[in-house]
Each structure stands twice: as C-alpha cells, then as structure tokens.
Amino acid sequence: MGEILRWRLLLFQVSKDSVRDHEAFWDENEQVLTYEDTELRMDQIPTLLESEYRDCRRLLYEDLMFGTKDVSFMHAWALKDGANIDTVGWNFTQHRDNELLLRGTCKTLLAAIERSDQLCRLFLTDTRNPVNGYTWRENAVASYEATVQELLKRLCVLIHVSGGQPVRESEFLAMTWRNTQRRRSVTICHERVMIHVRYHKGQQQTGRYKENVRFLAHSVGELLLDYIVYVMPLRQILLRQQTPKALLSPFLWEKDGKVGIDGQLSRCLEDASIRARIPRLHGSSWRQITVATVKTKFASHIGVSEANVDDQDAEEIEEDIRIMTRQRNHKTQTVNRAYVDQTGASFGNVWDGLIRTALRASTLWQDFWGVETILKPKKRGHVEGKSRLTKRVAMGVYRLREPWLGDALLEAEARDAWTRSGLLDSNRDKIILYVRKRDEAKELADLLECGSYTARSGTTIEKGEEVAKWLALTDKPYLVATSAFAEGFDYPHVRLVINVNERESIVLFAQESGRAGKDHEKAYSLVLLHPLGSLWKMM
Fold first, then answer.
1. Residue range(s) defining the domain that contains residue 393
2. Is the pTM of this model over 0.70?
C-alpha cells in the first residue's frame, strides 16, 4: 500500500509539470484552429449550432408537440423559481407564481391527441372491452420515445457547446431537471435558464466539489423549458401505460430510466458535426479547442487576477474589487458565508458572486459565437416566405411570377429595418398601444391581429389570462389597451409605450408612459397625432 501511495504522489507531481505533445495552434490570421488532425474554422461552430437548433425545433414542435399552435411557449423571464426549495420531486413548474401561466399545460398534448382523429388512430387502439375502452399502441409509444431521444441528442450538443466552456462529461450527463436528494441542476435565475453541476476530481483530498454554473442562451433555454413543461407530462402518462405508478427519471439525459454512459456526449458531438458538415469534433478535441479559443480571443481583452489556490472563494476580478478586498480584515469565504448568510442559501457553495460571474462568462461566450443572433426563432408560415422573397427581389436575385406590389415590398423592408435597429429584443420586450375608446381598441387590435385590454375584456381571471398570453408571445410584442389596463401591472421589460391621440390628463399620460423601462434600460414613449381623425385609418 505504501508503494502505491508513493507512486500516486509522483503521478500527481508529474501531471502538474508535464505538457502534452499535442497542442492546438492557430493560423496566421487566427481564424483557423488546428488540433491533431482537426482543422476548424471559427465560422463552423455557428454552423453547427444553427444545424442542431433547427433540428431541435423540428423534433420538438412539429413531432413531439404535434405542431400544436394554441400553446403558450415558455420564456425564462416569465417564470419564477424557488432556488432554495429542496423538496424531492420539486421544480419550477410547481411554483405558485407560475400557476396561471402553466395551468393545464400538463394535459396540453393529451388534449391535442384527443382532438385529432389522425392522432387518435395513431396512438390509440380499441380494446373492445367496455371497462378499459382504449389503450395506447405500443409501437406508437416506442416511436414517440425514440423521437424524444433524437431530440435529447441534439439538445445536449446545443447546451454543451453554447452554454460556455465545456464541463466534464460525467457531470453533464448527471444533470437533473427536478429535485432528488440533491437540488436540481436546471434552475431559472436572472431571467435565464441556469445549469448548475458539480464535479469531484479523483485526485482531490479535501472532499470539496468544484461548482460549475452555466447560463443558456434564451433560444436554447426556451427549448428546454418547453420540453419540460409540455413533453415530460405526456412521457409520464405513456410510461405508466407500461409500468403503473412509475415516475420519470429525474436525470435529463436518460434513456429507459438510466443515466447516459461515458462517451455518449462525445458520440452526440461527432454525429452533430457530420450533420452540419464540419470537421468531426469529439469531447476531448472540443475541450482543447475551447481552451485555445479563450486564451487567444479573451485573455488579451479581459483582466483576470491570479486566484489564491488556498481560497476556493477567490473571485475578485476588477482592480477596484481587489483594492476593497485588501482593506477588509477577513477572507472572501467569510464574507460569502458568514456576513451574507449564504451557508443555507441555494446550492450550498454557490454564492451570488459566483452566479453573476458565471452569467458574465456565459454571455461573453455566446456573444463571441453570435449565439443569440443565429438561434433567433424564425417566423413560420406565409409571412416568413413572403419576407424572404422580398429580400431576394430587393437584391435582384429573384423575380416573382405574379406582379409584385410596391407596398408589400415597402412593408417588408420597414419590418427588416425595425429588426436591424436592435431597439426591441423579441424574446422579452413588449409594446403597449394606448387608445381612448373601447371600440378604437377593438378596431386597432383587429388590424394588428393582436390582443386588447379594456374594461369589458372579461372577468379578472380572463384579463389575467390575456396578459399572460401576450407576455408569452414573441412574434407579436404589442397589446392595445385603454386606461383600464392593469393598474398593478409591473412587467419590467416594456420597451415602448405609444399613445394614439393625446391624453386629456398629464397625470394619466405619465402613468401610462411610466410602464416602460422599469428594468432600468432605455425605453421610449411616443404620442401619435393626426388632425383628420383616426390615425390608423389614415396610414
């Protein structure tokens, strides 16, 4: 035993001093990175992400959710989470503040099957038994579960690549979506989906874990939320068809209730590379590539202090913070735990400073690859095709067989100009249009094909549902309202308030305009006047 321990100590020392023979290196322009036999251009990672995101949306919304249109898609900024709740089986879907938004979502896909004769024939079979009636077809259930696994293969690549620098495969595959004896890995924090995993190095002597926190891009996080909210309940129903009283596994990347095996993430990354037609990546090569990318693309622009090896809580980065740290008489660990009372807070060793640092790091990583831009959900249907053709006509590369109307071209170009301006984040920002009369609200809402809020919009519950539906939509950010609109409404991301015709009271105007910019970011208030009558009739 003594000989084994001596060899162990020797290997520890050698591993710290040794340098690997294979090192990733850049070309002269720092646009192509080569590691062993893999030559990767920087523009190929966005191609990989876009390819996997497109497949994820198709598998989730068209196949697993049956193309259902009348659903409220999930957004992290609209949901609440209780980070300190450690009840076994708990996650954000059980938070009381989410009750209105999530009401009935657990049976949405089941109801879609019941409404569709085609889906009923596909999923159900008549047992010709007056007691049991219908039962699930085993082949349809197996096909549905196989589609789930295809989605998870692509979603894990999206999260692994776009969330930030890669975590270890074993910890990634052990990610949980609801509480077990330990708290879940998927949490909503800072209006983003946060992933928190821990790993324990085999060489470590202290028994302390390394905390890894990543924040997902909005589009990727919304895919994960929709999967948990809509698909998981149907999977639970199908599972109990085979095993009564069974529960879905709490692990996100499970198959048949078992956690993914070593090498699974690497295989998913290789398959994704083949689909995207880029050089084949696997777990170890991607780790080397990310290290080289951070050293070259970030290290020269971001000042990073030398961390104190003996103090795991050393997180000071900026010079001002370092100066204030020297002035105090206690360690960072004491501040994070004793003074801020973080010992019993969420995730044990994960304090607010680490979470905010991780948010900053994930944001930098996603900005570098342009994740939020390339993964922005595309509008579906005729409008999307019309807009795309408009751009091609404007560029002189396509000509329609039918006469093209100038006003349609102008409309599409105006829409593109608004998108390019960057004034509105379609994932969260909203617009309120105030009018004076109820009939005007209805007329304008019909014209814009959006919701409206007046004193006659229904009961308090119906009004609340209308507002929740508006907040959940990303393709139509506007709501037409009168002065009756939600006096206690405090959604922070109202970016623009438009008053159609002037207000009779400056106080009412101030109250309505004050609904914009509560998130302390730049917001706008606009008054539209026309001396000849109804403004939108003149447009």
1. 379-421
2. no
